[in-house]
Amino acid sequence: MVPPEQTRRAAGTPIGGQFASTSRPKTTTLSLESDADPARSLPEPIWPPISFESHPWESNAAGISRTEWKATRGPYVAAVVPQIASVHDIQLPGDVRVLAEEAATEIARFDAELGHDIAPFSAVLLRSESAASSKIENLTASARAIAIAELGDRSRPNATLIVSNTKAMRAAIELANRLDSEAVVAMHGALLGDSNREWTGEWRDQQVWIGGRNSPHTARFVPPHHDRVPAAMDDLVAFMARDDLPVVVQAAIAHAQFETIHPFPDGNGRVGRAIIHSLLRGKGLTRTITVPVSAGLLTDTSTYFDALDSYRSGDPVPIVQQLSDASLRSIDNGRHLAADLRSIRQGWTESIRARSDSTAWKLADVLLRQPVVSSSLVQGELGVTVSNSFRAIKRLVEAGVLNEVRGTRRNQLWEAQHVTAALDAFAERAGRRRNT
Fold it and tell me: Are residue 396 and residue 307 in the same domain, yes or no?
């Protein structure tokens, strides 16, 4: 399946402010409890599926073959998302319910484990989650490139976009206590404000589609017409405000509903995964760190996209299962990364030759969250003079902690290669399919 963010945009035809069609699914009462065998699948549909409606389309023959032009003539069909804020509960098989509860327990435990650690794991995991979420959209960059982009270097487009995604993730967490429409728009602005400001600040005002080439006729999925987006997002915000649902289940459903609405011209996948973290923080499941859920989803992106398709067809079980499994996988990977960074820091303790009050030791701690530094960054982070910043850098170069990666006098940069190697290893593990 084409990743959710690879959308096409075109001018649509207004259909009025109505949210659901006359065939709107009725409010459904569902239960998390099941007397059936926990391993059995429940009858479908167990969740209100999307419906569809037709819209006129003006086909443009310029630049396409006659065959393609014929295939894109006439009306197209777009989705109509059901209201979910009033759905009483979410029916799940017993084994999936237990899996979601296990994921919630492990997320809280992981947060407690690393939240008060001396190493800056909050910043490290936030950047790692941003990189993994971007990789789902085929945006990849090395840990070194990302760290350099964080210093303001815009020469690597993918790395620059990943840094913007980190800003969106940070905004999602900061806005966790008021996850309303304005907060979602702000997350999107943090993501694309530097690269495509014209797409930010409001919901989309055009029809978009996923897959296909010149029109929505051949698309894999056509999200709702843009006139339906504001009401659909209001309903989703009301669903996210509920406090009567298991948090991991609620986050999975909210994410799938957001991806189905597709409220922006671009960036929907990355914002949608940021919303997961906003919910986890807002509901109190995490307090200090970001669980790199996207790193878990990277193990099998095809299954993740298929789960979104299943949700649209009225089956939320696969997306709940995917988010739960991804959380558990990412926690294992995150613990591995934390152990690697602790080991690296311990190794530095044995190799750095400096007084205990030396700036070099303070710089070593900075390198765990910012593995590429410049003299100006060291000055700003540690509040030292130019000469003292260079003195600290020199000590770490002599200890084998830092290596120069850019040698111009005007823009010298140094890299903590052991740290970037650990971050790249985390990313590699995230994309590796587990043996079953």
Answer: no
CB 374 within 8 A of CB 390: no
Q: Are residues 325 and 417 in the same domain?
A: no
- Measured CA to CA, the distance from residue 113 to residue 121 in angstroms comes to 10
Give the pTM: 0.85
CATH code assigned at 400: 1.10.10.10
Pair 150, 59 in one domain: yes
Q: How confident is the model at residue 68 (pLDDT cuts 50, 70, 90)?
A: low
Question: Is residue 1 in some structural domain?
Answer: no
- How far apart are the C-alpha atoms of 116 and 200, rounded to whole Å? 36
The 10 Å Cβ neighbour count of residue 347 is 14
Any idea which residue has 């443009």 for tokens? 60
Same domain, 395 and 246: no
The DSSP H or E segment spanning 378 is: helix 375-382
Quick one: residue 383, left, alpha or beta (phi over 0 = left, psi -120 to 50 = alpha)? left
**CA proximity to 12, closest of 56, 61, 70:** 56
Neighbours of 73 (CB within 10 A): 13
Provide the residue range defining the domain that includes 425: 349-430
Number of domains in the chain: 2
Q: Are residues 319 and 389 in the same domain?
A: no
List Cα–Cα distances, 131 to 43, 126, 127, 226, in angstroms.
38, 9, 6, 29
Which CATH number fits the domain that encloses residue 12?
1.10.3290.10
Q: Which element (helix H / strand E) includes 102? A: helix 94-115
114-139 per-position pLDDT tens digit: 876 655 788 888 889 999 999 999 99
Q: How many helices (H) and strands (E) does the chain have?
A: 16, 7
